[in-house]
Protein 1
Amino acid sequence: MRWKQIEDEPKTFVLIFETGDEIASVLQQFARDQGLAGSSFKAIGAFSYAKLGWFNWETKKYAPACVLDEQVELLSLIGDIALKEGEPQVHAHVVIGRSDGTAHGGHLLEARVRPTCELILTESPIHLQKKLDPESGIALIQI
């Protein structure tokens, strides 16, 4: 992954992922390396593999919903980064398109880039914190 900071206020980055990069883990490491907290991002590109999930209210966990082990278009990737217990946490939703024109969407669990993914990340001036919500069982942004 290559990146460049393109703005100071608010701090804004362009990240260019390359073939084989796993989006979520690389983005998590980038956030850690840059000391990012409250940030949002959006991206387009293509994947060779994607695992999507959905939140199961009964188990309070993200369950795999769809695995696409094929070339797909990344139609939309949006998400945020917030701190949970001092560590940046990536939360992303994705819509991907197959060659037959059908689309699949959900919570991004894992995805490998091919050939590229272009992501714009903007840090909020107010850093966001996540805290465990007892009702849902997941960490939610606190305001």
Protein 2
Amino acid sequence: MSLTIKGKLVKILPVESGSSKAGKEWKKQFFILDSGDQFNPEICFSLFGDDKISMLRNFMPGQELEVSFNVSSREFNGKYYHNIDAWKITAASVTNQANYQANSVPAIESAPLPTEEDDLPF
């Protein structure tokens, strides 16, 4: 299953690396995205491998991103572990956000100013 979410990049964690039992080198990196939801807004995504990690180099904390990801689970010794693996990261469309902000505030119409002929108190 593939999902997509938009949010603000909060934090980029350091790259982790190691070796598998077979002696193969690996690298992974995590980053935190704030979805803006009321409850549990921060989501921790993982990037595995140099090609995926390099996608994050173009972005800085505070930027609005759109992240495509997969959710997976695996069992180990009777416990389940979950991964949220990002596979595509792009800058969120600023024009949609600007249009939303401009359209979300209703226009304020000013009432005509009273003239000298109109001396009613209301």
